[in-house]
Amino acid sequence: MIASGVYDYINVLGKAADGAWARNEAIANNIANVDTPGYKRQDVSFETELQHALKASKYRSLDSKIADANEHLDRLEPRAYRDIPNWSYRMDKNNVDIDTENVELASNQIKYNGITTSIDNQFKNLKTVIK
After folding, report:
1. Which parts of the chain sit beneath pLDDT 50?
2. Which of 34, 90, 112, 131 could anchor a disulfide with 20, C-beta 3.0 to 4.6 Å?
3. Do the Cβ atoms of 50 and 13 come closer than 8 Å?
4. From its phi and psi, is residue 76 left (phi > 0), alpha (psi between -120 and 50) or beta?
5. CB proximity list for 108: less than 8 A, separation 6 or greater
6. Helix, strand, or coil (residue 44)
7. Mean pLDDT computed over every residue of the chain
8. Which neighbouring-strand residues pair with 81?
């Protein structure tokens, strides 16, 4: 993490990429355990944490909110949780649905690709300014 206002968006996008990567790992773990009796689906919440951080900011502009969130990046971490741990639609008490997991994996991959493209664009903007 670079402690300069120029890199605020890059730092926050980097944390978002970390969150999407953690979610990808949780989904892959769910897919790997689709036939494990008693296994409960896991997920990772990062978007909620980021939204909370941006809404909690006292500033009105997005640039100011991102700068404020950048100052507290150490508190902005993906949160893993068990999704509906007491619920199961199968006799073996497993609550993983492979079709849902595949859709979630594809959706999360699109999100991750968008975040990395945004990071790349931020660096391209900086390169243009430096020229």
Report:
1. 1-2
2. 112
3. no
4. beta
5. 20, 23, 24, 27
6. strand
7. 87
8. 43
